[in-house]
Amino acid sequence: MEELIIEAYGKVNLALDVIRKRNDGYHDINTIMQQIDLKDIVTIKDREKGIKIECNNPEVPVDSSNLVYTAWEKMKEKAKIDRGVHIIIEKNIPVASGLAGGSTDAAAVLKGLNKLWKLNFSKKELMDIGVSIGADVPYCIMGGTALAEGIGEKLKILKSFSNKLILLANPGISVSTAHVYNSLRLDKIEKSPDMDMLVQAVENDDIYTLAKNMGNILEQVTVEEFSQIKTIKEDMIRYGALGSLMSGSGPTVFGLFDDEKKLVKCKEYLEKKVAKVIITKTIE
């Protein structure tokens, strides 16, 4: 039986602004996405009929509600074939954390089935399939550093912002992306992140300007409901982070560091009070 093993990398949002609510219920956003080296491992095996999903984390659904199931269905539809698949997910990215764990697994399945079934779809074709699965899936196929607009599907590649030290702190609470967006009061937004300045900082590889000016509009919903997110951000700054921000709709908070010793001290402190604390870095 032929099988493929694919590394499915997570992401953080270095900045996130929400522009407007669309008629289809989605929101138009403006965000800088950055791939990190925290990854799930997705094994894909050929199967004659149907789909079997396994995962080492019981929090992850193994039925049709998992985005990898949708990815398999979309690929069958696009290729006009009916083939089965066995998907095994080694979950290392925290679930429902704002790090695109579900989206990156779906992206891995699209890439894997393209290879396994010898379909030869281009990256652009895979990204077009991906947007019908989830807003972050096209980015997860592309990777690297990108400015994302629309619902997240309009992507512009930015210069690499790799090898920056990042500390992730996940407080172990579950946050619904839909709930956060639906609770967002656009008329109450006082200050949006300066995306032009932040894109320029990324392009200049200027971690200091970026860290000082990062912003995430969704924090005004999530922080209000979960005060520990604000506390984690403050703790990270106190322990030497250049800047700290909630990623996506949360609840994971990340800190950008330029000093490994400070990062390790911050990790040791946060581990006493936060469910998951992970050292990672930005990658291309």
Automatic annotation (TrEMBL):
It holds the Pfam family GHMP_kinases_N. Pathway: Isoprenoid biosynthesis; isopentenyl diphosphate biosynthesis via DXP pathway; isopentenyl diphosphate from 1-deoxy-D-xylulose 5-phosphate: step 3/6. It comes from the Bacteria. Residues 199-274 form the GHMP kinase C-terminal domain. ATP binds at residues 94-104. GO terms for molecular function: 4-(cytidine 5'-diphospho)-2-C-methyl-D-erythritol kinase activity; ATP binding. It catalyses: 4-CDP-2-C-methyl-D-erythritol + ATP = 4-CDP-2-C-methyl-D-erythritol 2-phosphate + ADP + H(+). Transmembrane segments: none annotated. Catalyzes the phosphorylation of the position 2 hydroxy group of 4-diphosphocytidyl-2C-methyl-D-erythritol. Belongs to the GHMP kinase family. IspE subfamily. This is 4-diphosphocytidyl-2-C-methyl-D-erythritol kinase. It comes from Anaerosalibacter bizertensis.
